Amino acid sequence: MSPVMQIRFAGEEQAMTTRSLRRRVGVGTVALLTALAVLATPGPAVATEAEADYQPTFAKDVMPILQLKCQECHQPNSIAPMSLLTYPEVRPWARAIKDRVVSLEMPPWHIDRTVGIQKFKNDRSLSQEQIDTIVQWVDGGAPLGDTADMPPPAEFPDPTAWRLSDRFGEPDLIVASDPYTVAADGQDKWWRSTAETGLTDARWVRAIEMKPSFPGGRKVVHHAIARLQQDEDGVTGLANGFDVDDDIGPGTFMEWAVGKEGEIFPENAGKLMLPGAEINWDIHYHAVGEEVADDVVELGVYFYDTEYVPKYRTILHSMRAHQGGIDIAPGEIGMSQGFTRLKGPARLENFQPHMHMRGKAMSMEAILPDGTRRMLSSVGNFRWNWHINYIYDEEVAPLLPGGTMIVVTAWHDNSTANRENPDPRQWVGNGSRTVDEMAHAWVDVTYLDQDEFDQMVEAREAAQKATDNND
Ligand code: HEC
């Protein structure tokens, strides 16, 4: 991890602690504590004692966290098994909530916090401070507190509306999956269908969004992937002079899971759709005890004006974490590794590990042409039923010179210790059934021209120096 990020993070945490302290004990007390802290050394000990005595309550401290980080999924008509909208609903789950937030399983966000890049556009995780608050609340008997402290109910976006329509108007193109009926009970299903887009001209995409039906679809669609399928033959010069060859292709278009807004590309970048493009759907359905008939997921696409050609084409790569096969012995933990060479200077926009039931961990490193090795991201406790896309914040998205080797490493746990393992006695290889395995990362790569790349690297270095000096 670069020192810039560490410093920025330490700063943020400090700011958060002061803010929360103010919320908890009132502004006047904070001023007093601060004054005391200046007089007495070491200062921060005073604050810590005040915090240790404080008993968080549901109304004042826990409800705001649930509203922000849990309720979008944990409400009637959404994907989670129970609603967490009110105190009577939450109270019976207090212990389970503590367990799941301490183990970093909930909210689903499984990136390793100790290595690699730590700033993401779509980070939905709890801060350490929020985890501590929940733990103290549960350990203190999960009290309701004073209902006068209870914030008003949270408002959620209208699940029937396109979220980006406020900004861009209604989508220019809407593509629906084939209807599928999800039975009341049964195992999870992966529904695959192909839809034509009807496009007759090439168009540049500025934003995309997906929407399950409401209310049925919101309960049963665990996540959905739309892959763009089109004929790239003869398409050159559109990825900055890099021919789009077979091992790149147009790739996945978008992946959706509850809480996801949609994707907006930077002004000088976009995805390219070609005439005759098709969308291949891959929808993970999950039974919820009632039938949902003829469910349909929709993809909304917003185009740039026809005259506008963005400078950069963003292309999704599937970066393999193996070389020609997966081979996991019964009862063993298997490790495999794959290499993808960057064809030119590039910015990586995200990291989305893809494995199945035996998936345990995946990391992505860069080996630069000068031999420098950098850990970019690692997911230490992968959960196969959560396909999470970790999207880097623009200011930290890795800028890598041409010729850099991206190394993706995958670990699969085929032992009895893996509670998701359907059968530890089986040998496991590649395949698309969930009981077979896969090992790759979906990574959006934006190839840059050398001048702009150099400028971006310089700007980053300048920003890092400024932070170092401020410290
Ligand atoms: C993106 C959707 C989503 C978000 C956000 C989310 N959950 Fe969940 N939660 C689920 C789903 C789906 C399950 C059931 C499947 C699973 O465990 O992965 C679940 C399961 C749970 C369970 C276990 C329930 C059981 O049956 O034992 C607990 C406890 C829980 N969530 C608490 C939370 C808390 C607390 C938060 C916020 C801090 C949160 N969740 C945020 C979707 C979500």
In brief:
The chain contains ten helices and 23 strands. With 471 residues, the chain is α+β, with helices and mostly antiparallel strands.
Total individual domains: 2
Low-confidence stretches: 1-47, 237-248
Shape: globular
Instruction: Predict the CATH topology of the largest domain.
Output: Jelly Rolls
CATH architecture identity of the largest domain: Sandwich
* Number of helical regions: 10
Q: What would you call the structural class?
A: alpha+beta
Largest sheet: 11 strands, mixed
Into which percentage range does the β-strand content fall?
25-35%
Determine the N-to-C terminus distance: 17 Å
Bound molecules: heme C
Radius of gyration: 24 Å
CATH class of the largest domain reads Mainly Beta
Structure overview:
The protein has 471 residues and is α+β, with helices and mostly antiparallel strands. The chain has 2 domains: 3-149, no CATH class; 165-454, Jelly Rolls, CATH 2.60.120. The chain contains 10 helices and 23 strands. The strands form 5 sheets. Strands 1, 4, 7, 8, 11, 12, 15, 16, 19, 20 and 23 form an 11-stranded mixed beta sheet that branches. A 4-stranded antiparallel beta sheet has the order 3-9-5-6. Strands 14-21-17-18 form a 4-stranded antiparallel beta sheet, with no helix packed on it. Helix 4 (58-69) packs across helix 7 (128-139) and helix 6 (94-102) runs antiparallel to helix 7 (128-139). Residues 1-47 and 237-248 have low confidence and may be disordered. The structure holds heme C. Heme C (HEC) is lined by residues 69-70, 72-74, 79-81, 93, 96-97, 100-101, 106-108, 124, 126, 258-259, 385.
